[in-house]
Inverse folding.
């Protein structure tokens, strides 16, 4: 077992998942302003530190994805943020792409940038304590999208990034997100997501990336957010599992789903169903941002000094996600 494979299993093993706390300053500012809290570096750190020092970090969170601002900050206890996370037996990680920009010759689609100077940035992040990384490719669904250009370009970028991350001693999270936006059926989402993921792994293998040291962060197979063709949680789970079984090489240790526009309960319920029906050898867990943080953020915004109360809310949500990652969640547990 390689050192990187060991790190990957530490992040997603034993029912643990990933806290995605890598919102850019612009995104975090929107979230804080939505709950009437000023978005200062101090407030952004205070909220994140509240989560990072909560009890559930030890049992439920195997890794935390940080943003460039946060990984360089020191907590109010005086510890560097990566050290605070490591002390909870969780692994510090870092988002390393620089965002999705308009794709030349396909103006409605996006290409993720950040390869220029990436090797040097990775070395710096490693010194700061990061042991895994994240890069997100984003795809839209419509009659003509995602285009071959978008699929190939983003797969190539994800593979180049992954090779560099492993070269620097870090586990790459590969995040090809097919967005929920639109009125497409789950079947269309299945077909497009399958094509996207297969292309990603073709490029990863071409770039000699060690698949035993990669974590895939895909979307679940869902109907579009404006679709009237709704399906059951069980159907979502079975379609998602079929897609991944057919598209992901068996060497990959695990899959950590993004919540992608689902509510916290929906994301938990669907993950639980996936694990109840999981007929693969893949670990199936979570890598949630809003679906882990939103309820805690709403509570915290009423009194940002109420650290314990905020942590209680976060602990509950993290525990629910951990149960779902083992197929042991039920709606009744939400109200206990």
């Amino acid at each position: 077992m390689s050192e990187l494979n060991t790190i990957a299993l530490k992040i997603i093993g034993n029912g643990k998942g990933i806290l995605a706390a890598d919102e850019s300053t612009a995104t975090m500012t929107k979230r804080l302003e939505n709950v009437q809290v000023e978005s200062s570096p101090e407030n952004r750190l205070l909220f994140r530190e509240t989560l990072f020092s909560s009890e559930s970090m030890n049992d439920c969170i195997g890794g935390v994805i940080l943003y460039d601002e946060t990984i360089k900050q020191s907590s109010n206890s005086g510890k560097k943020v990566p050290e605070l996370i490591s002390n909870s037996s969780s692994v510090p990680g870092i988002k390393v792409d620089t965002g999705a920009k308009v794709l030349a010759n396909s103006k409605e689609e996006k290409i993720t940038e950040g390869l220029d100077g990436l090797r040097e940035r990775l070395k710096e992040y490693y010194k700061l304590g990061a042991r895994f990384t994240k890069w997100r490719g984003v795809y839209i669904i419509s009659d003509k999208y995602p285009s071959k250009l978008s699929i190939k370009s983003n797969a190539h970028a994800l593979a180049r990034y992954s090779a560099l991350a492993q070269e620097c001693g870090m586990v790459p999270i590969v995040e090809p997100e097919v967005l929920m936006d639109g009125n497409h059926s789950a079947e269309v989402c299945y077909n497009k997501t399958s094509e996207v993921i297969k292309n990603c792994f073709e490029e990863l293998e071409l770039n000699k990336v060690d698949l035993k040291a990669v974590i895939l962060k895909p979307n679940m197979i869902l109907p579009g957010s404006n679709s009237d063709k709704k399906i059951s949680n069980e159907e979502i789970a079975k379609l998602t599992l079929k897609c991944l079984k057919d598209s992901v090489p068996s060497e990959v240790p695990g899959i950590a789903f993004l919540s992608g526009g689902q509510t916290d309960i929906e994301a938990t319920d669907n993950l639980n169903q996936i694990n109840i029906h999981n007929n693969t050898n893949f670990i199936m867990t979570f890598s949630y941002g809003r679906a882990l943080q939103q309820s805690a953020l709403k509570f915290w915004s009423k009194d940002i000094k109420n650290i314990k109360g905020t942590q209680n809310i976060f602990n509950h949500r993290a525990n629910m996600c951990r149960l779902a990652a083992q197929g042991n969640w039920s709606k009744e547990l939400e109200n206990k």
